């Protein structure tokens, strides 16, 4: 058997190898895109891309050979180490039992040798280990081929996208190239699909590597344990337990079962191990991403867990911002935060490789690192920096910026206030506004705010639909902000706050300065923020909508005259 904590950290080095492979390839592509020459003729452009693609393929193949060799060596080490540790744990259980002379002989020839790190050639356990090692390694090689194929397609796609933007006259060469590098940085992840519980799930390469390595090795050790139980005539097994188990596994963990059909053993009735824990299935013990193991148990032995222990493990005793969660739910949230940290680290690393400003990505990284620290501080969970790690071209982790500079339109987002739910809401709401064919919300916001329909329409386009020069050398949409999304929703639904109306004043001032008076977006935002900061309070008490409109016009007039 292998302990849950050992299994959790088992794939870390393998994940680093494949993360480094992805980083090397992604940064290589970004560098190649950023250095493409200026060609106006379509046929010449295609010839240049084909030449560059050939060079890229050679570079990728060289990287695959290098990293596959590293992976094979590390995987072999992990298999040998895990099999030995598992045998040592099983041996400790056997040593507590009263074995017959025949059982002791079998034990010496099997478990004891494995516990010493000796894997005899031709032994049944050797076939188990070699077959699973081969299957795992071949699966990892297929993952690298997926990375390579995806990388080559993305390179051609972004090169052609840049050319079309320049050819259309919509963008100059430098702006188009920067957009392509940013697109690579923000959408560089290779994913693989797996069928699970009749659903198709998409996993990142890192998640797929972690799953394949941990699951494959755990199943190998479980198969050896099972074979030894069979050879030694062991009837009972005890399943280990850990905090944070998925609910369906928490129901059967930490108990003793009988192998085969449910029955009595020495006067005690035991449920069937196969029927309850379902070994050999994707969703059962030692299945996909399962950290449970089992080991031999003999009548009269002291059990490792009692009912009280198991009940404590499944309690909703983790609190975060007033909400109680089980350890499993809390760790799922922690995994989501870690994915965001890795995402923004990658974005920053690829932008840097492509010669594009990475400030915005590093700010987002800082926000999510603060969220991670806040979450672990309040829940008592341990921060897992291994799961925040990414491979980088330089070998150094991108550094976060902790002063928010993300441009959202009305307010710079406070990283302390951001969380997963709010960011998802903002993205969903902004997309819904941007994809709406009707402008029914314009009339509702105008009616509920006192602003004219024309002004609200301009504000809506400015915040949600128009691209702006945010200082990166090209135009882009504002980043979704949960605060603005909530404000617009309240304005549309007819329950706006005074601050929501002031947001409209801020945006109207900003867009007027940009469109009529030629201010840059950054300068217009700063000036509008002076007149209408997000926390601005009207000193004269509750003013009417007309008063607010007049106040906006007067402030704008005074600003332009100064």
UniProtKB/TrEMBL annotation:
Question: What InterPro entries does the annotation carry?
Answer: Phage_A118_VSP1
GO MF annotations in UniProt: structural molecule activity
Coiled-coil residue windows: 61-88
Task: State the UniProt keywords alphabetically.
Answer: Coiled coil
Looking at the Swiss-Prot or TrEMBL record, what is one Pfam family this protein matches? Answer: Phage_min_cap2
Task: Give the protein's recorded name.
Answer: Phage minor capsid protein
Classification lineage: Bacteria, Pseudomonadati, Spirochaetota, Spirochaetia, Spirochaetales
């Amino acid at each position: 058997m292998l302990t849950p904590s050992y299994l959790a950290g088992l794939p870390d080095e393998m994940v680093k190898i494949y993360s480094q492979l992805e980083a090397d390839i992604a940064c290589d592509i970004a560098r190649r895109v950023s250095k493409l020459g200026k060609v106006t003729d379509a046929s010449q452009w295609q010839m240049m891309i084909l030449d560059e693609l050939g060079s890229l393929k050679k570079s990728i193949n060289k990287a695959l050979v290098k990293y596959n060799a590293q992976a094979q060596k590390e995987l072999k080490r992990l298999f040998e180490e895990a099999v030995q540790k598992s045998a040592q744990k099983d041996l400790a259980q056997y040593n507590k039992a009263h074995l017959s002379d025949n059982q002791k002989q079998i034990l010496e020839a099997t478990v004891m040798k494995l516990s010493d790190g000796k894997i005899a050639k031709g032994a049944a356990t050797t076939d188990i280990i070699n077959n699973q090692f081969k299957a795992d390694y071949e699966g990892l090689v297929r993952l690298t081929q997926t990375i390579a194929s995806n990388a080559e397609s993305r390179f051609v796609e972004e090169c052609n996208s840049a050319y079309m933007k320049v050819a259309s006259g919509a963008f100059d060469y430098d702006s188009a190239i920067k957009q392509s590098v940013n697109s690579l940085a923000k959408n560089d992840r290779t994913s693989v699909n797996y069928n699970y519980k009749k659903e198709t799930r998409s996993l990142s390469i890192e998640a797929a590597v972690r799953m394949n390595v941990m699951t494959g090795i755990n199943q190998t050790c479980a198969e050896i344990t099972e074979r030894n139980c069979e050879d030694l005539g062991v009837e009972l097994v005890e399943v280990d337990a850990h905090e944070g188990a998925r609910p369906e596994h928490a129901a059967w963990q930490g108990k003793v079962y009988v192998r085969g059909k449910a029955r009595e053993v020495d006067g005690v009735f035991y449920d069937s191990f196969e029927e309850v824990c379902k070994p050999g299935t994707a969703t059962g013990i030692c299945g996909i991403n399962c950290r449970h193991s089992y080991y031999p148990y003999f009548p009269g032995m002291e059990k490792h867990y009692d009912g009280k222990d198991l009940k404590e493990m499944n309690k909703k005793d983790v609190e975060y911002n007033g909400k109680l969660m089980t350890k499993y739910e809390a760790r799922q949230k922690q995994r989501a935060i870690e994915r965001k940290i890795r995402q923004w680290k990658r974005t920053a690393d690829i932008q840097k490789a492509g010669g594009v400003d990475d400030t915005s990505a590093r700010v987002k990284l800082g926000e999510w690192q603060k969220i991670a620290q806040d979450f672990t501080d309040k829940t008592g969970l341990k921060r897992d920096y291994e799961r925040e790690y990414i491979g980088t071209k330089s070998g150094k982790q991108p550094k976060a910026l902790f002063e928010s500079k993300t441009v959202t339109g009305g307010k710079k987002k406070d990283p302390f206030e951001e969380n997963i739910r709010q960011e998802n809401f903002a993205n969903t709401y902004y997309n819904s506004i941007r994809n709406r064919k009707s402008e029914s919300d314009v009339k509702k916001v105008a009616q509920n705010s006192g602003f004219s329909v024309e002004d609200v329409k301009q504000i809506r386009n400015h915040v949600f639909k128009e691209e702006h020069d945010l200082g990166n050398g090209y135009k882009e949409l504002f980043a979704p902000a949960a605060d603005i999304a909530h404000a617009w929703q309240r304005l549309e639904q007819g329950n706006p706050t005074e601050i929501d109306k002031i947001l409209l004043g801020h945006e109207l001032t900003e867009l007027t300065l940009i469109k009529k008076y030629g201010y840059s977006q950054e300068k217009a935002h700063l000036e509008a923020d002076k007149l209408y900061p997000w926390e601005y309070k009207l000193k004269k008490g509750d003013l009417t909508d007309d008063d607010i409109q007049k106040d906006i016009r007067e402030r704008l007039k005074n600003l332009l005259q100064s």
